[in-house]
Amino acid sequence: MSSSFGARFTAALAERGQLCVGIDPHGSLLRAWGYDDDLAGLEKFALGAVEAVAPLCSVVKPQSAFYERFGSAGIAVLERVVAESRAAGALVLLDVKRGDIGSTSQAYADAYLDPTSPLAVDAITVSPYLGFGSLTPFVDTARRHDAGLFVLAATSNKEGPEVQEAVTSEAFGARTVSAAMLQHLRELNAEATPLGSFGAVVGATLRDASFLGSSGTEGGSGADLAINGPILAPGYGEQGGTTSDLVRIFGSNARHVLASSSRGVLRLGPDPLAMRDAVARANDELRELLS
Question: What does the record give as its pathway (predicted)?
């Protein structure tokens, strides 16, 4: 790759807009499209979705688990999703939420970020909850191959606050765990231009973002979301997150937000025109309010 992920991300959003479509082959969606929940249905669904949306989206985000459930043949479909999405001009963010330590982290990083791997993508999601330092193999590998990471910081699931809003000890700054994750990302992205390659995952449905830290100026509810890096905001659209929520939560940083929707687009399939229209409408709305 000839440029950093942060640079490619910035260019993709400027050219194609801020909507990310998750290509998540739920069994219920396969059946809604008229397919069986089997390998043949997976292939028709996933590749049909890619054909419809990848030429329009800045980023597509396949969720690895929905392919893994079919074993090695499902992984082969995922490899085609990655290759055909990139051929259509979209960046590929693989939603795997990996997190481990030492050589295991390195193996995961090599599997997804080394361009010699058949599953190599532009960026992946990772979990820092074994300690942010456990992500070092991912960080080093991403830097080496101009790839990106999206680190879980403030997810919108109801169980998340138990960990993410817990307060660290004085030795670690007496701040919430989520705020600590964002600070680590600021440090990784320091001095990067036009944008760093290390992003945060922050839910688009958060009611109150104040636990992310307080600056009073950078984001909704006094949260400081300036990390000089990309932000993935899952929950946009069908799950209740709106463009107004993105403005409220992210404030002046909303221009770096990738708003992620899966079912809101995929439920319109298998009609490719309906899916493309949904992508275009969402990008127009995001462009109007976030630019």
Answer: Pyrimidine metabolism; UMP biosynthesis via de novo pathway; UMP from orotate: step 2/2
Provide the whole-model pTM.
Answer: 0.95
Question: Which amino acid is present at 142?
Answer: A
Q: Is 97 a catalytic residue?
A: yes
Catalytic residue among 44, 61, 97, 158: 97
CA distance 61 to 82: 9
Buried b (16+ CB within 10 A) or exposed e, 58-77: bbbbbbbebbeebeeebeeb
Instruction: List, for residues 40-50, the tens digit of each pLDDT value.
Output: 999 999 999 99
Residue with token string 């028709």? 44
Enter the DSSP assignment of 157. S
In this structure, what are the phi and psi dihedrals at residue 124, rounded to the nearest 5 degrees?
-135, 160
| Helical spans, DSSP H, in 174-230 | 177-189
Backbone phi, psi, residue 98, to 5°? -80, 150
> Under a CB-based contact definition with an 8 Å cutoff, are residues 178 and 164 in contact?
yes
CA 190 to chain CA mean position, Å:
21
The beta strand positions in 64-222, using DSSP E, are: 91-98, 123-126, 148-154, 198-202
What is the per-residue pLDDT across 175-202, written as a single tens digit (0 to 9) for each?
999 999 999 999 999 999 999 999 999 9
